[in-house]
Amino acid sequence: MQNVNLIDTFLEFKELKNIDRATMMRVLEDVFRNVLRKHYGGDEHFDIIINIDKGDFEIWRNRDVVADDELEDEYTQIKLSDAKKIDEDYEVGEEVTDEVTIEDFGRRAILSIRQNLTSRILELEKEHIFGKYKDRIGEIITGEVYQVWKREILIVDDEGNELILPKEEQIPSDYFRKGDSVRAVVIKVEFKNNNPFIILSRTAPEFLERLFELEVPEIFDGLITIKKIVRMPGERAKVAVESYDDRIDPVGACVGMKGARIHGIVRELRNENIDVINYTNNLQLYISRALSPAKISTIKIDEENSKADVYLMPDQVSLAIGKSGSNIKLASLLTGYEIDVYRELAEDDEDVDLEEFSDEIDGWVIDTLKGIGCDTAKSVLEIPKDELMSRTDLEEESIDDVLNILKAEFE
Asked: Which is it for the CA torsion 130, 136, 137, 140, positive or negative?
């Protein structure tokens, strides 16, 4: 086998340690038998010996010896006179085995073998990558940033496989440069344009779940179960946990001594605020815990419509709603109930429902204020003007008009 290019291709194939020996042998033999069929019209009378360790191969042809005037098929038979040139002892009816060199096929056949081998190598590599990551969906992968683009980041793993981290799967405050180490979870594996596409995510709930498994041994061992995770990536997350062992405090185990366990997770998620909640089948208690750190006064639940009306003291309303409504939104997602927050008044506390001002304030403005938990005049007046503007997105002029109308009611 004198053709260097062919041997190089063979050796390239041999170095693929991900592919098992039997598959390597089968693919190589298939490629050579395909050439034999094209060149000789069949491959039944050929033996192919492949030496994986040396990166070499041999092809031997078996032919029956016939009398010179009885030759019918030169590919399966050999004339006695030609057989005796190989060895004087051959007789009619015996079998002659001689080596076929790759040069016998010609230059075009050699190029075809090389191309076929290269093609099969690439196919096997793609199948291996696809199969490997298909089995790892939901697992955390650590890779190195290879290229940063506007809409996605190209990451390579420790085997040099290419992985994609799209912009929408990155935490808003994520910032990566070439060479940075990145951790993310595999969320999708698919073939696109005949190439395996491995999509990673740092915003998926599964990423946070895997981080908890890494940091909290009790979760990894199954003593604590994560019931549900909801996230606003980079801002806030709520994690409901449950322990099957009464001796284990699931929230304390997840947070760790002085927050040691959860701090590592928070850093990985760019300081995302994580609320760990003790799961319970008691719906009222579960909703109350989900709205933490706010302290709930009363909860009225409409199970048929999956709604919950929550009443709080005035100083707790903003805590229940959270920055930009994050707390109440995540609590609703966690519990599966649409939660509405109402301000509870003391008996001697005079206040006026916002609906009473519908003849002076547009209905959509009142709905906007209710959306941030303000359903009475005083609940609006207690919030600083700048905060009202940021939480409602109303223009300053509209806020001023509302405040003047409400203040006039108590003057």
From this structure: negative
